[in-house]
Design goal:
The chain is mainly beta. Helices cover 10% and strands 32% of the residues. The strands form twelve sheets. Strands 32, 34, 37, 38 and 39 form a five-stranded mixed beta sheet that branches. A hairpin with a 6-residue loop joins strand 2 and strand 3. The chain is elongated and about 180 Å long.
């Protein structure tokens, strides 16, 4: 209550209020000065209000005292319960954690005044989650309370925490929150095989790296703690099989490393071990983190193809061996217990020329055609071995045959030698050096010897000197040569090798006698030009050249005029009306005409003359006629012709087009349509030619001709 000393109680003063909440939250009685609150006050919304009050004269409105300020403080009561910062907390800890391991800290706040009483003093307690977890009452820290909690037994826990004010005393307000705690996995469980022995079967034809079977060891852990690595530790199939881990399923896949053979061994026993790849040292006391099992693999017998004694054969044969000479033998056997007999053959796709053949019984390879090392040094063929009882069971082996050289080729000149000798040459002058080549092979190098042929050794005008280095020189034997007497010499030279048997050939060197200057440079080798030294003068040569040029110009002009005339139109005058007609008067006799063609010729292409060529075009290249199979007598003619049509369409030697002559010119300015009867659909008897008289004098003759024909028919 406000009261002024100037208030005499006569109602002359009036009290007014201003400030925080004046007129809304707080009101004042203007006559008595009583201040009242209009609604419930909440300290948590506003703890302090500052108001100003003043007494004024009711009549004049003037203040009778200075304005007074006063402060209203709201005293706190415990009207707010503690509130957690989260409605739900999520936390995780590793399984098998020690007691007292920190899990998570929860926090609750109280809106009441912490400085006034215990309204804001909060303590924590656990309502749900014991005996696994505990909470510190003052800090809200949650810890483990039970030893060796195992994720494999229970993974999820739900804990309810309470926060209560008033220090936890009776009458205090409280709030709760939920904490979801998950146990994370640790590698505390070793892998274990569900059974101690596994049985698998594998055909002996199983390809390498193919799976035989799968085994799996179980691990209660998850993630990387459950990753397993498999290995074969011992057993008689240690080197025959391998094992890998399927990363998706954690299974061990047993595969074949080496080829299986039922006849050699039909049972393998392996010991397979499964080990964790990520071992936690803290739990080694629980035992070894690995397990083992026995795997028995039974090999099944299958019908196998014959097997050669070698993966490949290399043979050698001299090129001069007689036909049917044996050059080597291949051997193959049936690996099955039945030991079926085997027959041999040569794959003709690798021996198209049938140079070699093979004995189907014993596998001996022999020649069937002559060999030539200079043509083909290596022959690579394939031999097939198949079971006689089951030819589908076959195998192949490559055979490499090297043709050895024999001295069967005579040496010959390295090139064609044509040289010259000067008329003024001196004796013993070198005019040409010779060299030779040999197609045969020589292990120690070729050694050639050169000599003149016996018929030329004594009477020749030249000598030959062997240089003993596979070359030879031709020298002049006399001084001066006369090209008017002999213009060309042919010198026979014998070239021999030193291999066994000795091979030799006679080669010819052409030597022309030429006129040379004093330095030996050739001037002319034409003897006839020197026999008639008096030639034409320069003026005569120029005149002849001019005549030739004029003649050529005349020929070119004449050809151009003829070409120009050919380009003129076919019909120059409108009066010149022509129709080019090609008449084909040969018509078939219909179905009853059996003499028109010989059906036997159609069915037997052998009867056709192979040398007949097309007459309407000039063939660019002559191909050998293609032979086709003779048709059966009961072949339908239509099917036969369709077959021949298809063969000629796909035949690359058949002409790609037909000759077509088109006659479509009927003259300039014709007022009538085509007069050709080739496209008429009616007969002459159906035509009325009276209209020809209306076309004018140019068609008068036609009108008379056809008009008279109509009158003759009427008569």
């Amino acid at each position: 209550q406000l009261h002024s000393d100037q208030d005499k109680g006569d109602g002359s003063l009036k009290y007014i209020l201003s400030g925080d909440g004046a007129g809304d939250l707080f009101i004042i009685n203007e006559n008595t000065g009583d201040i009242q609150a209009t609604k419930r006050l909440d300290r948590e919304e506003k703890p302090v209000y500052i108001l100003r009050a003043q007494a004024i004269n009711r009549r004049t409105g003037r203040p009778v005292e200075p304005e007074s300020e006063f402060i209203i403080k709201i005293h706190d009561i415990n009207d707010n319960e503690p509130m957690f910062t989260k409605d739900v907390y999520n936390a995780s800890i590793p399984e098998m954690s020690d007691v007292g391991t920190f899990v998570v800290q929860v926090t609750a706040t109280d809106a009441d005044d912490p400085t006034y009483g215990n309204s804001a003093k909060v303590v924590y307690s656990i309502l749900q989650g014991q005996p696994y977890f505990s909470v510190e009452s003052e800090t809200g820290i949650i810890k483990t309370a039970l030893l060796n909690m195992d994720r494999e037994n229970r993974e999820q826990y739900q804990v309810v925490i309470q926060a209560k004010d008033m220090g936890g005393q009776m009458g205090g307000l409280s709030g709760t929150t939920t904490v979801n705690i998950t146990l994370t996995d640790v590698n505390d469980n070793p892998p274990r095989f569900p059974q101690s022995t596994y049985q698998f079967r594998a055909p002996e034809s199983t390809p390498l790296d193919s799976p035989v079977g799968r085994i799996k060891a179980n691990d209660a852990d998850v993630g990387e703690n459950a990753e397993i690595e498999y290995s074969i530790t011992e057993g008689d199939g240690y080197d025959m099989f391998g094992i890998t881990t399927d990363k998706d399923t954690q299974e061990g896949i047993i595969t074949v490393k080496k080829a299986l053979d039922f006849e050699s061994k039909n049972l393998y026993i392996l010991k397979v071990e499964a080990t964790n790849t990520h071992v936690d040292p803290r739990f080694l006391y629980l035992g070894p983190f690995k397990d083992s099992a026995t795997v028995r693999i039974q090999v099944e017998d299958v019908d196998e193809p014959p097997m050669f004694s070698r993966p490949a054969y290399i043979m050698e044969v001299k090129e001069d061996v007689p036909l049917n000479s044996i050059i080597g033998t291949v051997s193959a056997q049936d690996p099955d217990a039945a030991k079926n007999p085997v027959k041999y053959s040569v794959d003709r796709h690798t021996d198209m020329d049938r140079v070699f053949n093979i004995n189907s019984g014993n596998g001996s390879i022999f020649t069937s055609k002559p060999l030539d090392r200079e043509t083909l040094l290596w022959h690579n063929i394939t031999v097939i071995a198949a079971e006689i009882n089951n030819p589908k069971q076959s195998s192949r082996v490559p055979v490499f045959i090297k043709v050895l050289d024999v001295n069967d080729n005579a040496p010959e000149f390295a090139m064609f030698y044509e040289t010259f000798v000067c008329e003024n040459a001196k004796a013993e002058q070198l005019i040409q050096t010779l060299s030779a080549v040999d197609k045969d092979d020589s292990y120690n190098g070729h050694q050639f010897s050169f000599s003149l042929a016996p018929e030329a050794a004594s009477s020749s005008n030249f000598t030959l000197q062997d240089n003993r280095d596979n070359t030879a020189g031709i020298f002049t034997r006399k001084t001066r040569y006369n090209r008017h007497e002999t213009s060309t010499y042919f010198l026979p030279v014998v070239v021999s090798d030193n291999d066994y048997p000795i091979q030799s050939s006679t080669e010819t060197v052409t030597i022309r006698v030429c006129a040379c200057d004093h330095r030996g440079k050739m001037l002319s080798c034409n003897a006839e030009a020197l026999i008639h030294p008096t030639g034409l003068s320069t003026g005569a040569l120029i005149a002849i050249l001019l005549c030739i040029i004029i003649l050529l110009v005349t020929v070119v002009l004449f050809a151009a005029l003829r070409r120009q005339r050919k380009k003129e139109p076919l019909i120059i005058s409108k009066e010149d009306i022509r129709d080019n007609i090609v008449s084909y008067n040969d018509e078939g006799g219909g179905e009853e005409d059996t003499q028109a063609f010989d059906i036997g010729t159609l069915r037997n292409p052998e009867a056709i003359d192979d040398n007949k060529l097309r007459r309407d075009i000039v063939p660019e290249t002559l191909f050998m006629p293609r032979r086709t199979a003779t048709a059966r007598d009961n072949t339908d003619v239509r099917d036969f012709i369709n077959q021949r049509l298809k063969e000629n369409d796909t035949d690359p030697t058949a002409p790609p087009y037909d000759s077509l002559a088109t006659y479509a010119y009927e003259g300039n300015g014709s007022v009538a349509e085509s007069l050709s009867s080739l496209e008429s659909v009616t007969t002459d008897g159906d035509q009325d030619y009276d209209y020809l008289s209306d076309w004018g004098p140019r068609f008068k003759k036609l009108a008379d001709m056809y008009g008279s024909m109509d009158s003759d028919k009427d008569s």
